Amino acid sequence: MTTPSALTPLLMSAAPLAPDMSIADVADRLLTPECKAFLSLAVVDADGRPLGLISRYALQNIFMLRFGRDLHGQKPAHSVMNDAPLVVCLDTRLEEAAQQVTSQLTYPITEDFILVDGEGRYQGLGTVLDLLKAMEKRVAQRNAVLRRALVDLKESQAQLVQSEKMASLGQMVAGVAHELNTPLGYVKNNVQLLRELKQPLLQLADTHGALLDCLHAADCDEARLAAALGEAVDAREQAAPELLKEDLQQLFSDTLYGLEQIGELVVGLKNFARLDRAMSEDIDLNDCVRSALVIARNNIKDKAEVTLQLGELPRMPCAPSQINQVLLNLLTNAAQAMERCGQILVKTWADDAAVFISVQDSGKGMPAEVLARIFDPFFTTKPVGQGTGLGLSISFKIIQDHGGTIRVASEPGRGTRFLIRLPRAQAPNLQESA
Questions:
Q1: 3-class SS of residue 12
Q2: Rounded to whole angstroms, how far apart are CA atoms 232 and 29?
Q3: Four-CA torsion 150, 156, 157, 159, nearest 10 degrees
Q4: Where are the alpha helices (DSSP H) in 105-221?
Q5: Cα 309 to Cα 331: distance, rounded to the nearest angstrom
Q6: 8 Å CB contact between 77 and 21
Q7: Which residues pair with 415 in a beta bridge?
Q8: Would strands 40-44 and 50-55 be described as parallel, antiparallel, or unpaired?
Q9: What is the pLDDT of residues 188-224, one digit of tens each?
Q10: Burial 276-291, CB ≥16 within 10 A → b, else e
């Protein structure tokens, strides 16, 4: 059994015309109910191969002539047929058939097209209208598939972006936890030392209390007073308050410094996330730089020395948490680019039109072929499992949503510089889509 092709539903059975059939008989055939749906009929030879088409339009022009039917009615059909008709093989794909037919159409449309089998034998006719309807249906089906694919793509993109956010959050939390451990460690040690140092002081206070009680007691004899005084002297020697004063001062200073570091990290983390602020607000981007540096400190401190050249910036509307995410990503990448301890220079400045942030490192740099792809989703030069390839792509989208641009210049062996430009007068899309 022959497998139906895409054009089979378009095939309409129409008895062909013999080449020697008279024009008058052709006209009568076109008037029958069986042929009312056709604009034309095919002329076919004895082997079943199409020779041409005779259209209603052509016959109408003949019969509109004075005595046209009488003069031309008995002439053979092949004398007035179109000998270069549209012929389409049934095996042709629907899209190819539509392209073939529409590329040869003339207006007004006065003929149908001939459908043949693989050997070129006549099978029937197809109408242009049915072909266009089939194409419209096919396009609608493909549009539905594309819409579904677009929805799936957006869902996948949202999941991947969220995955990248969680990966960044995990690195950030690990870094902050490490940074918190150091001050927490010596604050804890200092508290333990204070607990140990308090015992001699408490003992000294107890012996002084006993000595005072003895001095005020009417029945206190000389031996009891001497014993109390001896215990007080021993307790003072054990406590050594003149030495303890300096130790306590140092302990308190170290403890306060550690608590200040912890407070700085907590404030930096809160500012970085902006959990207690509006999604979009007027801020000084220098604050974003400082917050990102606090959070990135653990990733940077053993790899690079950071130099800040922060200019005076106007406050401008943006989504702080998103800008912080971009800066953290750039600072982390800069640190990871260091093969040995290097330099990171962060500069900010403004002109009448925009605010600029530059992050420049002295790392290994990138060749041109890598530089051309760094903003492509999923592109990464890191080993498998160490990067999603979405960090810079998301950063690019965030800056784009703010109406700005992010450019990069790099040279192997000389480092990399990212330049962010954010317009001062924005109409950004600051939805939390990045």
A1: strand
A2: 137
A3: 150
A4: 128-216
A5: 15
A6: yes
A7: 411
A8: antiparallel
A9: 888 887 887 777 777 777 887 877 878 777 777 777 7
A10: eeeebeebbbbbbbbb
